[in-house]
Design brief:
Elements (H helix, E strand, L loop, with lengths): L3 E5 L8 H8 L4 E5 L16 E3 L12 H15 L3 E4 L1 H9 L4 E16 L3 H6 L6 E12 L6 E6 L2 E8 L2 E4 L7 H8 L2 H4 L10 H5 L2 H23 L2
Parallel strand pairs: 1-2, 1-3, 3-4, 4-9
Antiparallel strand pairs: 5-6, 5-7, 7-8, 8-9
């Protein structure tokens, strides 16, 4: 099988727990460090699937690699290749496939509940998971769902937390987090400046019980990634 391509857009926003999952499944990947100037692939066909991680930029920023990423997503969708996006990555998928990305009503940062959207898509993609579960958030923008997509997750502070379209899964939330990532994000200059609100946790609150919360998050990620990988291995 060809390797997966994982696109990293910021030094602290790599594949995280997804790398562990891929290793357990015996799957190889190529890490494309967009933040370090790695060239964008000329075609999606060199890979078995595409994965786009998070990042502090907006998909609407005039960055030279963004149109190339959108092109790759559209190509992969046309080829029937699985695509996976986390936060910024989910927004890239939405924009590439005809959705709109813009400001969320509130900034959403820290641990928070998401809820399954009733329907066939969430039943299929989130099988075995509870109706509500806790994940990690760090975003100020959000996406709309492109034509043909089906919503699977929502939250009190962000209507669209995830959608599927064909073999593609776009998430606004983060399920790839590790304790190391939680600590690094909380300890970043941005994290240290956070002021508590109903939708924002301070750095200290994010770190509380992080080991137990990340362990629960990994159980959720195992189920979601396994479902996505089922399509990869077909």
């Amino acid at each position: 099988m060809k390797p997966l391509a994982i696109f990293r857009h910021a030094p602290g926003e790599g594949p995280g727990y997804l790398a562990d999952v891929l290793k357990r499944h015996g799957l190889s990947y190529t890490l494309i460090r967009v933040d370090e100037g790695d060239a964008m692939p000329p075609t999606a066909s060199a890979y078995s699937a595409l994965v786009f991680m998070g990042g502090p930029m907006s998909v609407n920023d005039p960055l030279p690699w963004i149109p190339q990423a959108l092109r790759l997503i559209r190509e992969a969708q046309g080829l029937g290749q699985p695509v996976l996006g986390h936060c910024l990555g989910g927004q890239l998928i939405s924009k590439a496939l005809g959705g709109v990305v813009g400001p969320n009503p509130v900034i959403e940062i820290g641990w928070g509940l998401v809820e399954r959207v009733p329907g066939e898509a969430s039943a299929r993609w989130l099988a075995g998971l509870s109706e509500r579960f806790e994940v990690f958030h760090w975003h100020g923008e959000t996406f709309t769902i492109p034509e043909g997509g089906a919503p699977i997750l929502t939250s009190p502070f962000c209507r669209h937390q995830g959608f599927v379209i064909g073999r593609t899964l776009a998430l606004q939330c983060h399920i790839e987090m590790t304790t190391t990532m939680i600590d690094a994000w909380a300890g970043s200059p941005e994290g240290r400046k956070l002021v508590a609100s109903p939708s924002v946790q301070t750095a200290d609150v994010m770190r509380e019980d992080a080991v137990a919360k990340v362990a629960s998050l990994h159980a959720i990620a195992d189920a979601v990634y396994a479902r996505w990988l089922d399509d990869l291995c077909v």
